Amino acid sequence: MTADDSGAGPREADIAPRETGAAPREGDSAPADGTAGADSTGDGAARADSADDGPDDDTIAIRLEQLILGSDRRYTPFQAARSAGVSMELASRFWRAMGFADIGQVKALTEADVLALRRLAGLVEAGLLSEAMAVQVARSTGQTTARLADWQIDSFLEGLTEPQDSGLTRTEITYPLVELLLPELEEFLVYVWRRQLAAATGRVVQAQDDAEMVDRRLAVGFADLVGFTRLTRRLEEEELGELVEAFETTAADLVAAHGGRLIKTLGDEVLFAADDAGTAAEIGLRLIETMANDETMPELRVGIAFGTVTTRMGDVFGTTVNLASRLTSIAPKDTVLVDEAFAEELGRTGEAPVSEADAKAAAAAAEDGAGPLPEYRFALQPMWQRPVRGLGVVEPWLLSRRG
Known about the structure:
The chain is an alpha+beta fold. The protein has helices at 43-48, 60-69, 77-84, 88-97, 111-125, 131-160, 170-205, 210-214, 228-234, 237-257, 277-292, 319-330, 340-348, 356-367, and strands spanning 215-225, 261-265, 269-274, 300-312, 315-317, 335-338, 378-382, 386-388, 392-394, 397-401.
């Protein structure tokens, strides 16, 4: 299993809002070079482009868009590209990378869209980013913020905009609520981003060489809920959603609290990474212990591997990730399985004896005054070797706390 985030990318997002029941006017066809824009259907933008459409121009959707974007629709995609001084082809690549669908040649874009194009293109012209890297920046930012925006609307604003006793509808409540929340959420988003950027930069600076910045040696772990497919048939949708949210929240908090990084969540499974084996071991065992003490949660199984990992756009790839996934699939419930490289790394750092014979020898040496008594945190028990599809024969080790 590679760690690509299927299903987690951005939906067809809008710069222009969706407005049902409207169709593009004749003549609003897309140019042959492929024009990227901002509405998943193009209907709302087409209606907003007409001065003769009457009172529909002043819908709550248009007013909310103007409030959030801070400016009115002024440009077609071609006009925006020309104003930004970039080719239509490059503008299309940027827009699509950010997750916005083609809309033809309707006035759906704003000064902010022009400025964003100009900034990205300027980084390329200055030689700070290659064109391919600028597209990656647009894609990674679009994917991340699309998920964030969806979550905020679906889980946050929806609950706050329930019709009140005053008789106001959700639509009437939404505008003043967004007006109040927008600056605060924007400031918080920038703060968290800067914090995460500082942490990521620190990890890169500590890398031993340039190659290690991309291909690094990490501990990678998967935590998987046992019997989740059966649960989907037994629980109501709301109950299942609450269970998944509780699992993801608990896992994210534990991973962060003990020094790891949550790479992504996949419903019944989470993927995490840590710079050293001891941190990953602590996280894996904490996850098992915490979930076991929660009667509402199914059993959990964890698989962790240690080795070279390729990082791209916040995700991790490579044989080490695949091995961790396979170990998770064969782990008994409420246990942590690790690979041989992980076991050796724990032994190298003195956090676990590779065997009980090593532990007894170290204890005997300490009694004879040959050294201090080792304070092992973890215990390792070799399991039966077994073939793993695509990875050959693997010798898993059972990880536990040392009594």
